[in-house]
Amino acid sequence: MSSRTIIAFDFGTKSIGSAIGQDITGTANPLKAFKAKDGIPNWDDIEATLKEWQPDLLVVGQPADLHGKELERITAAAKKFANRLHGRFGLPVELHDERLSTTQAREDLFSMGGYKALTKGNVDCQSAVVILESWFEAQWG
Fold it and tell me: 113 CB contacts (<8 Å, ≥6 apart)?
């Protein structure tokens, strides 16, 4: 089995967290948070990260409520972001359910570093870790 490098994004209108992982290990690590204005990041920053890490696939968290129902504005914006990633960089992009990723991320960070670890950028990147590791689990059934 060859290993693929995958970058996941936790989309937000003000900040977009990212994480990187390999499907051979099924683990992910926080990467960086990209500032955004109304959901639009600095595309040059994203391009630099993609050039540095050379991912084979991108995964974007798809917001949903606790019952799996799409959230009107933010889900549409996350899908638009995913489409723009694919269009700009030509990489395959998959959407993945991100229900409760922020809650899990906050719990993980708090257990590692207490309240000081709960900065916005840390939470967004840890949410991307949760999304990517959940995506890995879904691939392996």
Answer: none
- Is 68 a residue whose pLDDT tops 90? no
pTM of the model: 0.85
Contacts of residue 17, Cβ cutoff 8 Å, sequence gap at least 6:
9, 10, 30, 33, 34, 121, 123, 124, 125, 126, 127, 128
Provide the β-strand partners of residue 7: 20, 58
Residue 101: other Cβ atoms inside 10 A: 26
Contact predicate 42/62, CB 8 Å: no
